[in-house]
Design goal:
With 163 residues, this protein is α+β, with helices and mostly antiparallel strands. It contains four helices and seven strands; from the N terminus they run αββββαβββαα. The strands form two sheets. A four-stranded mixed β-sheet has the order 4-7-6-5, with helices on one face. It is globular, with a radius of gyration of 19 Å. The N and C termini lie far apart (49 Å).
């Protein structure tokens, strides 16, 4: 399967489990499938279904392709650049690296099913990461009210000690 080869062979995740069933446990719907799990370095898993008899899902055509994606953290910018070179050597198109306002550095590519993936590494220290984390609720609240980047400008890069 292309998905298993990609997540194990290209991304180096551990193929940790597979379940085959005729009925979807959460819905009781008859839909023969395989549910495959890949373990990340921190012990978390990402899982996919293959349902050969099911029609494909309708994509959200109102959203650009870059919106929905999975992000995985790597150790450093050097590891990120090495990963980009390895992905390109395997024939994948890779975008980036992209510096997200000094927060993280990221590259983007797609798996065989078209899922957009991101490899990312922090660019700031733990103190700055803590500041970003503490500011996140206010940024979200301002966005929910105004749906505007300008409304969040003060919180995006607040000076040390400000919130």
């Amino acid at each position: 399967m292309a998905t298993t080869q990609f997540y194990c062979g290209v991304l180096g995740l551990k193929f940790s489990h597979a379940i085959t069933q005729d009925v979807v446990p959460s819905t009781g719907q008859y839909n023969p499938h395989i549910h495959i799990f890949f373990e990340t370095q921190d012990g978390s898993s990402i899982a996919f279904f293959e349902c050969p008899d099911a029609p494909g899902e309708v994509k959200d055509m109102a959203s650009p392709a870059w919106i929905h994606h999975f992000a995985f953290q790597v150790e450093s910018a050097d590891v990120l650049h090495q990963a980009k070179a390895e992905l390109q050597a395997q024939g994948l198109q890779v975008l980036g690296p992209v510096d997200h306002d000094g927060f993280v550095l990221s590259i983007y590519f797609s798996d065989p099913s078209g899922h957009r993936l991101e490899l990312t590494t922090p660019l700031c220290d733990g103190t700055q990461l803590s500041r970003y984390e503490s500011q996140a609720p206010q940024v979200l609240e301002r966005w929910a009210r105004a749906r505007s980047v300008a409304a969040n400008a003060p919180a995006r890069h607040a000076p040390e000690g400000a919130s």
